[in-house]
Structures are given as structure tokens and as C-alpha cells.
Amino acid sequence: MDCYALKAIDTQSRSIDKAFIAPRTPTESTLAKIWAEVLNVKNIGIHDNFFDLGGNSLLAVRLLDQINKQFEGDLPLSNLFLNQTIQI
Fold first, then answer.
1. Using CA atoms in the order 55, 57, 63, 64, what is the torsion angle rounded to 10 degrees?
2. Pick among 3.90.180.10, 1.10.1200.10, 3.40.50.150, 2.40.50.100: CATH of 3-82
3. Tens of pLDDT along 56-73?
């Protein structure tokens, strides 16, 4: 079984009840670019859930590191678990 092919199919699908909504602000756009790079996904909408798109704890650490560098902040990892989308 080709697990990588299954993951690629799964990460491209969206929940039927949530239509794709593109980032609306500069901050959401920046976050979407970081998420896309970390998750290896082309388009990130404001309602897309990090973990539903294939995110895991190791990718979460990498994601937060990049976000903290980009925004010169120090967000805790728990922030991602409380806010699993880029919607602001």
C-alpha cells in the first residue's frame, strides 16, 4: 500500500461543510504560506485545521518555530492546539 499517495489524496480534500475561504488579512496570508510549506499543501484556507491537513506534534513544533521567527514572537505550542486554523 502506498501510504504517501493516500496522504496526498487526504490532505487535498476539504470537509463538505466548510468551503474554502482564502486568507483575508496580511497576517492570515503569512500564516497560510508557512502552513503550506510545513504541511506540503498548496492552498490553505482560513478554516483548514492543521491536524486534519496532516499536521502532527513534530510538524507543530516546526510550524511554531517558523511562526515565531516570522513574527518575532514567542507563541507557546499550546496555542496551536487551542487555535488549529489560521482564522484571526
1. 140
2. 1.10.1200.10
3. 999 999 999 999 999 999
